Write the structure tokens for this entry.
Amino acid sequence: MNGRRAVRRIALAAVAGVGLAVWAFPVLWGLLTSFKTERDVLAYPPVWIFKPTLDNYREVLFGASSIVPNLWSSLVVSTCATRLTMLIAVPAAYALGRLRYPAKRTSGFYVLATQMLPPVGLIIPYYLALQRLGALDTYSGLIVIYLTFSLPFAIWLMVSYFEDVPLEMEEAALLDRAGRLRALWHVILPQVRGGIAVTTIFVFLNAWNEFMFAVVLGGNRVRPVTVAMFNFISVEQTQWARLAAGAMLAMAPVILIGIFAQRHIVKGLTVGAVKGGGRR
Amino acid sequence: MPAAAVRGRSLEAQERRFALWLLAPALAALLLTTTVPLVYLAWNSLHRLDLSMPWLSGFAGLDNYAKMGSDPRFWNSLWLTFVYTVSTVTLQVIVGLSLALLVLQIPKGQGLLRVAAILPIVLAPVVVGLFWRTLVLAPDVGLVDLVTRSLGLGSHNWLGDPQLALISVIAIHTWQWTPFAFLVLLATLATLPPDVYEAARLDRASAWQRFVHITLPLIRPAVVMVVILRMMTALSAFAAIFAATGGGPGSATEILNLYAYRTSFTELNLGYGASLAMVLLAITLGISYLMFRLRRVRR
């Protein structure tokens, strides 16, 4: 019996180990590659022990095709889109989750339906509209358009957090004649702080990683780092070490968020999946 | 009328007004960024709108839709969308669920696995596509070729051969999104009441019986939800395929989403692209409607 249990343990650990390796290895391999010279990258059999170089990072940071402007673009677009989204989504989610008003079901369904729209269907009208408005390749154009996927997602995720706030808190605040807005601000919002953190993280991740809207509606001025990475490989086909270094820098923010906000992310995924909101 | 009732009604009216104020910005934004563009998309799909031949533009009625019937590339993309969606979603749920069931029994080290699982999810699909195209799937020096070569299976052009390319993009998608199914199902499984299992074990139910009769019914809502969300992602998959193969070689990995994109922004035929996007929209809404009904009926 004891022997069988030991075998089972080892087998389980092995399976988990494979899962771990398959998911983590490509990323670690990319990290390793980013410190290699281009010659070492193409060596066969692959070199495990090599003299690490920082040249790739120096090149993608300070070289001719520096990605620093692209990182800046991504930062501006993502933080602005996140703030705008949260500003609009949180009050709406409170109304949807907590207040009584006519056509509540319809408005909830409408928000959910907008989340199902395929982005390719929206990008054609956006392209035509922004072109006419002269707003192609502008920050404001891209930021507003990021609302299409971030807003329905954020609203639905926040609704499930508002629904968990005990009703008594609200009633107590209202009895104090505090006024609804003040009750929301001082009593309810502190209760959903965790939910706001989770939602903010997800909205930011999705905005940072977005590619299709950025590649069509951006340009020379507004070029997020996802687009820069894509362009890099079309131009510098064989510079993989440099690509790896660029990718590591481009993905550093989301990887760090992933590692440090692990619990938040798992929570967001499950809340979304159980309640029916959330696309990612 | 008693004063309390009047106050009650005015409170209700006040609540209604407040809700409206809170909702108005969101509804206006959604109307402006989703519904209006959609109407414009439908309108464009009824036009001939070819930026490479602008002088031919004009109202075309249902011509674009009629054209699809005899467009082999459209039917090919529809078939690929089906294959891609069904295979990636099935793989994600089966692998994710099996792994979750196994990992649940591991006393230690779940945290490490969770971090590893989060990595693919947080990466930008376009970067994932580029990574696989170069470091993982490149002939000779890619990780996969290193493995197949050392196993004596030889080197393959994973993204250049039409059939292998389709398998490769399915593998990329499955790699990136299986952690989602895994994490959600792991969290769901962890909330199941242990006493039900104790009773079943006393009844000498086998592990498989316990899974089919107890676990599966309990986690069904979560599984259905995972399937719905994963289908939506698969149907609108774009950046990873675009970066890895660009839809090629030829149109070997050109799912409907990519076909609509390429028609609109590579061939600049926005009218036809719009009608293709309308078809994708109809499929997406149809499927989500069906799945949500399924979810409600089963509960």
Residues 201 and 261 of chain A are 8 Å apart (CA to CA). Chain A touches chain B through 94 residues (CB under 8 Å).
